[in-house]
Amino acid sequence: MIQFPTFLPDRKELGRKLPGYVATSLIVLVTVLWTFWSAGELYYEGWWGPWYKRLLYLVPASVCLALTLIALTWPRLGGWLIIVIGGAFTAWWLGPRIRAGAEFGQLLALFPVSGILLIIGVLFLLEARHRRRRRAEGWTPPGPWLRRNARYVVAVGLPLLVLVGWSVHWLPILLTRQDDGVRSARLIEGNGVMLVWAPEGPGWNWKQPWGGYPSWDHIALYGLPPVGFDEKLGYEGRHATRDHMQATGLCRYLSADGTTLMAEPQDIWRMPTTDEIVRSLSSDGKTAACARGDSARRVPLGRADCARRPDKETPLWAPDRAPIYYWSADEYDKDRAYYVSYNGAFNSQPKSWGNPRHGYRCVREP
Description:
This protein is an alpha+beta fold. The chain contains 11 helices and 12 strands. The longest helix has 34 residues. The relative contact order is 0.11.
């Protein structure tokens, strides 16, 4: 009977190698996913200001890649680092969502970029034990360079391909983005809307000492005593409503030239509606002709239908500032309010959110 040679390891050997194969595959997958997120967010929301702020978006992918290379070289050290860092990150990442009442399915969807790190760390510890046994048995590394370093090539090459792919898609858009440098009041007309948008100052891109921008609640409750962003007696733990936005909203207190907040309501400026923001989106100095949908089909959340791709450009946006969303005057429900992205997406966020990505801009009739 003819015996054919086999290149497959026996079951015992395969059992020893399997944890390393699985650990490598999973950590590369996690790194690819974080590279996809990091590069996408860098180009979508992080493309403004100095370069060091932009590169911060690549930190998650860089940390994952560093852990990957450490674990491939020193699996015991890498395994423990992944367990410690992965556990801390999982607690930080999932903790607020659990306290906010996130459903099990939502938490499970986050597992591939958080909790899975704990499993990967344990698998690398098993890989470290396998390598110790292998060396004790007199194992020698293969001769060809590519075969010796195949894991490193895959670990670095796949995330690099993702980064290059995102760059090829985004850079032509970003490098041709229009910015006329004008931050004064602007008349934007077309697509069924004609409004004057507030100049830079308290009516637009009013950055606060804490580093972010006012929340929807802050803007809507501004006029309640004491006037300003201080805590409002009787509203601790409560959210503002659309009625508050109309009656006590910050825009009511804006001076005629849009540069100063007055002690009393002026009733010149107001917050724009979701539809008004969507219809005012533009690109290359022209209206993008966006709409949320026809009157027979109102879409509560999603992306506007646009004749042209809208972008973060003047006169509606400030490309050199952090906000990529504008709060609207509309509330989604008692806890959330609408916002519109420069790319035509409209969604809702908690009314209490105030961060560098969520800005606002008051409007008035011409």
